Design the sequence.
């Protein structure tokens, strides 16, 4: 994954910040429960691209800190602080799932800072607490009230898990993994808060975005519906939509196609441009 992270203090939270490459500045964020390693699988790192990734509070190597409530806006503010500290005044904002919601929030609320958007497997459009995020709340509530082994067993035998087992096995594997986290209890707070949150962006605001945008979606995914990606691509003016092989079908192809789509988009729209 390259160089070791630096540590940025925000309130009383110690956040891991990864700064790789040079050239076109890009802030790219992981999904809920993910980390910089997840970003490295999805992003086409190159010497000509400077990628900044912050492991969000209570995720990756970052601590939770004491500030509450957790929110997409809070995580977006952390990204802005890290970008400013790194001298990245303007940058392409992107991310996976929760990271896509963070990027959309940044584009809408800080248009002077964001030059482009890359939304990979988005889970939110414009409202808070979408139905597809309810399984995260279900998992969080079980972790908060039961011993972890009992909580996992209860979820594994639930109607939600039964549906996911047949329709979206990759999603199910991720959800079951949350019960094995070292910080499962505090991360349950993050899950519940973020799943009930949203990017705080209206449809009207999205139709006014005037920056190059790429939206990537895939099928066999109940948490990140293909319809969500399509809706965002149809709403943001001039957005490019790319459908990739589902992770549940072929993980290697999935990541290869995502990296190729992002790399092509960045080369077409930002190559040889100094935006730092």
Sequence:
């Amino acid at each position: 994954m390259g160089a070791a992270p630096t540590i940025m203090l925000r309130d009383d939270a110690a956040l891991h910040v990864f700064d790789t490459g040079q050239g076109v500045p890009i802030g790219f964020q992981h999904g809920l429960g993910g980390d910089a390693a997840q970003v490295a699988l999805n992003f086409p790192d190159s010497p000509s691209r400077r990628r900044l990734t912050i492991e969000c509070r209570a995720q990756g190597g970052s601590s939770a800190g004491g500030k509450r409530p957790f929110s997409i806006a809070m995580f977006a503010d952390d990204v802005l602080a890290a970008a400013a500290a790194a001298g990245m005044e303007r940058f392409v904002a992107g991310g996976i799932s929760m990271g896509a919601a963070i990027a959309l929030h940044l584009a809408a609320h800080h248009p002077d800072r964001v030059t482009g958007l890359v939304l990979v497997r988005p889970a939110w459009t414009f409202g808070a607490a979408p139905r597809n995020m309810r399984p995260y709340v279900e998992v969080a509530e079980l972790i908060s009230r039961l011993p972890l082994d009992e909580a996992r067993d209860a979820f594994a035998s639930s109607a939600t898990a039964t549906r996911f087992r047949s329709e979206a096995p990759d999603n199910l594997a991720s959800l079951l993994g949350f019960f094995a986290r070292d910080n499962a209890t505090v991360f349950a707070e993050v899950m519940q808060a973020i799943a009930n949150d949203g990017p705080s962006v209206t449809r009207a605001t999205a139709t006014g975005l005037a920056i190059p945008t790429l939206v990537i979606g895939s099928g066999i995914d109940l948490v990140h519906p293909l319809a969500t990606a399509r809706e965002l691509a149809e709403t943001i003016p001039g957005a490019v939509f790319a459908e990739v092989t589902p992770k549940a079908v072929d993980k290697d192809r999935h990541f290869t196609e995502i990296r190729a789509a992002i790399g092509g988009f960045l080369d077409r729209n930002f190559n040889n441009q100094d935006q730092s």
